[in-house]
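Journal club prep, shared notes

We agreed each person brings one worked example of a sequence with its structure written out as tokens. Mine is TIGR03617 family F420-dependent LLM class oxidoreductase. I'm keeping it raw so we can talk through how to read the token line rather than staring at a rendered picture. Sequence first:
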Amino acid sequence: MQIDVRVRNPLEFIGDDARLAEELGVDGVLNAEIEEDPFPGLALAAARTERVAFGPAVAVAFARTPMTVAYPAYHLQRFSRGRFVLGLGSQIRPHVERRYGMPWSRPAARMKEFVSALHAIWRTWDTGEPLDFRGEFYTHTLMAPMMSPTRNGSGPPKVFLAAVGPQMLRVTGEVADGLFPHAFVTERYLREVIVPTVREGQRAAGRPDDAVEIAVSSLIATDEAEFEAARAQIAFYASTLAYRPVLDLHGWGALQDELHPLSKQGRWGEMTPLVPDEVVRAMTVTGSDAEIATGLRTRFTGVADRLNFYVPGDVPPPGRYAGLIAELKR
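Then the structure, token by token:
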């Protein structure tokens, strides 16, 4: 497994964080689109590193169009000489419509077309062939030479998709280079649902089984406070209807029936105590750095190509995970 680490997104921190992460020996650095646009900081991460892969895990695709994503991804891929990885996620309907003011419909089909449009745009920039992408959701048929970026000699960026449910997992297998499973996942769901469904999509598209990398994200906790932080994070995720398949696989669906109405009423403080220890432990690796490293290997060896981990809350400097990184490398 290759080891990735999350870095802080603000421009004041991300360059130093990325450089430190590379010095600690990780294979990749990831930021996320939460309170800030992920792309500006990634230029600083690229400038301050020489070896690691880097990218967003994930940027919100449907807050943008394929063209507005194609430009920064292409520039970052060229600038870094081929180290950029474009992570995309759909978000959920209320955020897309009410926060970003963008259309929402048939997210799996829309994402498949989004990725196909990206590749059509990048192919035009690489080869000079006319741009002629006509889909159900996106149409891109105009590219003047003066609007085309300097050609990228490193090939198109890899595209990783975030997915939980079966439709988006199959789309990932059909068109993506990698998968970011949600941190709201168990080893059982990963092995029994996620990987087989992705491979099903690959076979349907005539792709080999190794076409899609699996980049797992895991909650960790080294003490009781971090364990409770994980419980609170899981309560938030478990209230989201789109994530119910994970709960149903384990017979925990009734938990969402309790949590979802509370979330709609904004009663967040009442949600956390409802999550049983059994659920927290199934989604969180706990203990010392050495114990967590062993637990991560036990859960994900043979299924994860890449691995990142985090304690819920504000993203710390990468030095916070120096001991765990050393244990994993050992």
